[in-house]
Amino acid sequence: MFRKLPSGTLTIACIHVLFLAGYALHFSAQSRWSIAFLSFVALSLFAAYFLIPGNSVGKIRIQPVLLCTMGAILTFVFGYYLAMGPVISASIVGLGAALFDGFSRKSSTFSAEIYCGAFVGMSAPDVLDFPLIAGAGIIAGLLLSWSGNALSGYGGKLGSIAFGGVITMVFIRFFAGL
Fold first, then answer.
1. Is the pTM of this model over 0.85?
2. What are phi and psi of 60, to 5 degrees?
3. Nearest to residue 149, comparing CAs of 14, 50, 52?
4. DSSP secondary structure letters along 73-132
């Protein structure tokens, strides 16, 4: 009944479940209901990823990695060093990428790659500082490139991938003691 789950989709699912598990462990002493609810959500996520048709794994390419990192850095710089705030800075970066993409003669999707990075760059400086934002952008770009057409046509792909990059970098920061 269930098809084989592609690696890109499985990676996205695992990142979400890891976050939910970390959240549940953090609050486990306070509420058993939160663990039950998050377990239900995690199982629902796995079931949803298994039932999505037509997924395939993409090859790792350098363009999404560079563009996602650029979007993350620009959004972070605009948002926190130029004091524009994360929402306005992500809007400016996304609009600039879409306008540039619209004026280019070649059909491309780099505006989506930059906008995924803009989601990464919206992270608070208390969570990740400047070098770690660049690292999260690299991780998100790798995930975006690797995910292929997983979750294509479903809302939230770019945000989920950006979340994956940020939460992975937060785990690296935590375990490395940075």
1. no
2. -70, 125
3. 52
4. HHHHIIIIIS---HHHHHHHHHHHHHHHHHHSSS---HHHHHHHHHHHHTS-TTT--HHH
Q: Tell me the C-alpha distance between 120 and 110, whole Å.
A: 16
Decide: helix, strand or coil at residue 30: coil
pLDDT score recorded for residue 1: 38
Which one-letter amino acid corresponds to residue 167?
I
Q: Which two tokens stand for residue 65?
A: 């990695």
Q: What six digits make up the tokens of 133?
A: 């934002």
- The set of residues, in sequence order, having a beta carbon less than 8 Å from that of 144 and lying 6+ positions away, is 64, 68, 113, 116, 158, 161
Q: Residues 91-103: pLDDT tens digits?
A: 999 898 888 877 7
Q: Are 76 and 123 in contact (CB under 8 A)?
A: yes
What would the two tokens of residue 74 be?
Answer: 């620009």
